[in-house]
Amino acid sequence: MTAPVEPLAPVRLPWLASVALVNLGTYVAFFGPLAVLLPQQTEAVVGDGKETALAVVTGVGAAISMVANPLFGALSDRTRARAGRRVPWITAGSLVGALGLTILSGASEFWQVVVGWCLVQASVNASLAAITATLPDRVPVAQRAWAGGLVGLGQTLGILVGAGLAIAFGGTRGGYLACAAFLLLSALPYLARSDDRPHVDRVPFSARQFTRSFWVSPTEHPDFAWAWLTRFVVNLGNAIATLYLLYFLTDAVGLADPDGGVFIVIAVNSVVVAISAVVAGRWSDRVGRRKVFVVWAGIVMALAALLLAFWQTWPGVLVAAVVLGVGFGAFLAVDLAIVTEVLPDEAGFAKDLGVINIANALPQVIAPVIAAPIVTLLGGYTTLYVTAAVVGLVGALSVVRIRGVS
């Protein structure tokens, strides 16, 4: 492939907003189910053993995600459609993702829940891989932390909007269908004004070369490897902490309305994350520093987890949501900027970002394996949140090993 040149023209806010909206739609499809709908549906379908059953659903779905994101990213990089490299995958991913959510809306057996969720994970990751690649495709380095902050809002607001839709439309059926509709609508502004650029070179396909391209040697590209490890370990700590939020509010905090409590926690956290991401992204671009923001973000997130470990009351949960928002917002914005600056293959942005996104999906596979026995056998939620604090802090400190970013 012919490597694209570094984009020089600053991107405009309307285009960036349309990218952020696609990102928001994909995360609504992820987090509406994860935050409220899947826990409710799993408990209704299996009854006792809900923790283990939810771990199976989320773990299998995350395993699908881990494969789908880099695979569809690599296919996006090679796409020669007249509409562009990214548009076909965003379109197909949104349509099939809405189908998967519709299947979930009518699922009454556990196997149906697993199949529906796997279809959502596979398809929506195709859209996510393509839309994420538009940042290194189009955004100059000097704007990337700010752009990362705005696009990263999709992840945070996706939790809020997804949980809000799940609660507002009353139960799993209406919640899933509302998330499906939002996923489709969120893609329309970008598809209408994408200015996506087709890949014009015809590249001979080799299955062996295609498969080998997913391996990025840590010895040849150490900065990429440390960026991957940083994101993986921080996300593992976050996944351990958030997997059982609904059950934590029910069983440990004793909240009378845990569903409403989940929404309030998400809303508070989302507002703070939004502010922190934009402020930290702008600040990082202005001073030209990245790693110090990630380190401090990790310290703040660890503090939030410790608050949950030792202050298991409703006020404690709200304070922790604010503290976590400050740290996670900064991490979202600046970590994404770091990642785009250490991508090893300029002709394969979506593929390499897909490999990076394994660091988002793999923790969802591992976290249930760690969290379930901790909650049921090894000390409950106090031990769980102390573990999350330690893991997340170790991950954030790993960023100092990246040499090519200041």
From TrEMBL:
<dbReference type="Pfam" id="PF07690">
    <property type="entry name" value="MFS_1"/>
</dbReference>
<feature type="transmembrane region" description="Helical">
    <location>
        <begin position="261"/>
        <end position="280"/>
    </location>
</feature>
<dbReference type="GO" id="GO:0022857">
    <property type="term" value="F:transmembrane transporter activity"/>
</dbReference>
<feature type="transmembrane region" description="Helical">
    <location>
        <begin position="175"/>
        <end position="192"/>
    </location>
</feature>
<dbReference type="InterPro" id="IPR011701">
    <property type="entry name" value="MFS"/>
</dbReference>
<protein>
    <submittedName>
        <fullName>MFS transporter</fullName>
    </submittedName>
</protein>
<feature type="transmembrane region" description="Helical">
    <location>
        <begin position="355"/>
        <end position="378"/>
    </location>
</feature>
<feature type="transmembrane region" description="Helical">
    <location>
        <begin position="384"/>
        <end position="402"/>
    </location>
</feature>
<feature type="transmembrane region" description="Helical">
    <location>
        <begin position="52"/>
        <end position="75"/>
    </location>
</feature>
<dbReference type="GO" id="GO:0005886">
    <property type="term" value="C:plasma membrane"/>
</dbReference>
<feature type="transmembrane region" description="Helical">
    <location>
        <begin position="317"/>
        <end position="343"/>
    </location>
</feature>
<keyword id="KW-0812">Transmembrane</keyword>
<keyword id="KW-0472">Membrane</keyword>
<dbReference type="InterPro" id="IPR005829">
    <property type="entry name" value="Sugar_transporter_CS"/>
</dbReference>
<feature type="transmembrane region" description="Helical">
    <location>
        <begin position="145"/>
        <end position="169"/>
    </location>
</feature>
<feature type="transmembrane region" description="Helical">
    <location>
        <begin position="12"/>
        <end position="32"/>
    </location>
</feature>
<dbReference type="InterPro" id="IPR020846">
    <property type="entry name" value="MFS_dom"/>
</dbReference>
<dbReference type="InterPro" id="IPR036259">
    <property type="entry name" value="MFS_trans_sf"/>
</dbReference>
<keyword id="KW-1133">Transmembrane helix</keyword>
<feature type="transmembrane region" description="Helical">
    <location>
        <begin position="110"/>
        <end position="133"/>
    </location>
</feature>
<feature type="transmembrane region" description="Helical">
    <location>
        <begin position="87"/>
        <end position="104"/>
    </location>
</feature>
<feature type="domain" description="Major facilitator superfamily (MFS) profile">
    <location>
        <begin position="223"/>
        <end position="406"/>
    </location>
</feature>
<feature type="transmembrane region" description="Helical">
    <location>
        <begin position="228"/>
        <end position="249"/>
    </location>
</feature>
<feature type="transmembrane region" description="Helical">
    <location>
        <begin position="292"/>
        <end position="311"/>
    </location>
</feature>
